[in-house]
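Objective 1b of the project was to move from sequence-level analysis to a structural picture of ligand recognition. The entry below was assembled by the postdoctoral researcher (A.K.) and checked by the PI before modelling. It contains the amino acid sequence of the target and the SMILES of the bound compound, zinc ion.
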Amino acid sequence: MLFAEIPGLPETKENLINAVKNNHLAHALLFHGPEGSASLTMALALSTYLFCQNPGDKDACGECSYCKRMEKLIVPDLNFAFPSISKDKDGEEDEKNIELANWRTFVKEQPYGNIHDYIYFNGFEKKQLNISKGAARKIIQSLSLMSFEGGYKVMLIWGVEYLHPSAANSLLKIIEEPPSKTVFMLITSQPDQLLTTILSRTQKVMVRAFSDDEVKAHLVESGQCDVKLAEQISMLADGDLRVAYRLVNDVVDEQVSKIREWFLLCYGKKLKDLFNLADNFHKADKEAQKSLILTALNVLREIMLKNVSLEELLRTTGEDRAFIEKISGKVLDENHVLELYESFNNAHYHLERNGNAKMIFTDLSMKVLLSMAKTN
Ligand SMILES: [Zn+2]
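Corresponding predicted holo structure:
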């Protein structure tokens, strides 16, 4: 990860680079920012810069063997700790190695992912995750060794709020006084959940949410979508790059069929079925709920495009496309779709802030039902 690969945030990048150049880099940094921000990628870019053999004024060179190995996250002096389900036992090396390999793949594939993505990625649903005392012991052990290459050693702890209190306590001393040229990079989106003893020993690096313009420019420059779509997505993503990626990729996804079923029940005014659906929705986990609402937003967006005859921008295909074509105009006209779009957007907002899922879903069902009735 290079600084250049992270959209925008020039002020954060400059501060970090200046700290390295002026030899002012703290030995324990806490990268914190909202979900979908660059807190992890910023720590990785800083690590690359520290390891790089020919660092430039604004970034690592991207060419040397260290930069190349950083792309694969396999620099020997870069250590990772992250939430895990493993028992607090030593001697399960195979399991640990598989976990580490999975972690590297996860970071490369979803550098803006959150803990829920990580749980899905590993199939850790319904399991208790933490960074155990055993993991802390491992951290201390690996940092007590000499640096492999004679340069910096980095200990990156992702999801540091998952540190078990006993693990946190055993790390206090080494975080306060790490061996020379060792840098702790702690990463969290929930600094308020950290023990004050940890907080007080770190220098905070606040990584703000991306601006809409940063998200928009990034989506266009990386060729993920056109300017028009990027504009809509950046507004909806609200600075969260994870959500922005999802919106780009999920326009076509299997969830569309769920939206199709839902809207058909609304169309047929099948109230009993809609209440059952609300129950199911309520039972799903928060991420699944939010993701369904995002898919519905995409469907509504497609219906809007169809309504204003911008078919060339439609992304759905096959059965989903047929559904969009059937529903737009006759079943949901332009004005009603716009209203619904707003309602679904609000629903996503309320779900994020722990609104009652069943009520939110039922409310949406009624709104869709009424919009369809009024269009007719
Ligand atoms: Zn380099």
